[in-house]
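We emphasize that the prediction below concerns an isolated chain of 354 residues; any contacts that depend on oligomerization or on bound cofactors are therefore not represented. The input was used exactly as deposited, without trimming of termini.
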Amino acid sequence: MIFVTGGCGFIGSNFILQWFENCNEELLNIDKLTYAGNPENLSSTQANPLYKFVKMDITSADDLKMLFLKHKPRAVVHFAAESHVDRSISGPFEFIHTNIIGTFQLLEETRRYWGQLDANYQKNFRFLHVSTDEVFGSLTAEEPAFSEKTAYAPNSPYSASKASSDHLVRAYFHTYKLPTVTSNCSNNYGSYQFPEKLIPLCILNALQNKNLTIYGDGTNVRDWLYVTDHCHALRLILEKGRPGETYNVGGLNEMKNIEVVDALCKILDDLRPRKDGKSYLELKTFVRDRPGHDQRYAINADKIMHELDWKPQESFATGLSKTVNWYLQNENWIANVTSGAYQEWIQKNYGDRT
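Result of the prediction step, given as a token string:
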């Protein structure tokens, strides 16, 4: 069996769905079910006898200890994290609590369990920590892409909390020899993404004929990684990644935010034309920028491509088309996750930006 933390979230649920498409091994999903954790994402796995779920906060050491003793996993894949920069700016406590304290407790209980295994099981055990490229800070247009040797320079409470968790994972490898591996990925997009991030938020707003809000002048650059490509990389890292190593995972698709919105609008113009005949492009609205907004992220993925023979299968054009189609075909899912609390957050974050 493997443990997956945060498996009801966006990337975690896609990982679990892909896992059962390719693997015949039990999986225990450990999720606190915060606002972005949605069991509906995994409805197709409910009848699978290999799938198990427990609602639990990873900051609870006693509960973690019980799970390790009962299920005896051969690996842990750690997704569970608060991940939205805007929310970390308005309320950083949950990010410190979950991303740092939660990772610490998970590492501690994993270390205790791992230390009691025999030598062969210890050697084959893995703790895969899923992190972000935001820990590296911001790049200018001329600077080379982030590599595994890039110095950390986090600029938001979110990225600082993830950088801290990365350092803890590194320390547990070097101090205790716990066989950890870390991945740092670029911006993910795809199905089941909670509509607070750029792409699903713009799709939702477009379908409701609302403004498509773009921070600043829209020139901030991100490397866009289709979520199933990311999950494939994570399975390879879990299987073949070397303990103590980090692997950058990128989509090789650097795009300005304004370019992303433009491409999305053109797809929607074709698939779901507006009733008034106008283009969705007319809904674009520029708003006051986010505090400390990093200008550019870019990933050098040479290491994982050369060592593990991985490369993304989706271009940004094909991945975005699949993403828009998924949201158009799953409007009930959107309605279920955009509750009153979601509307309150949208108003709080965007309501006073002009």
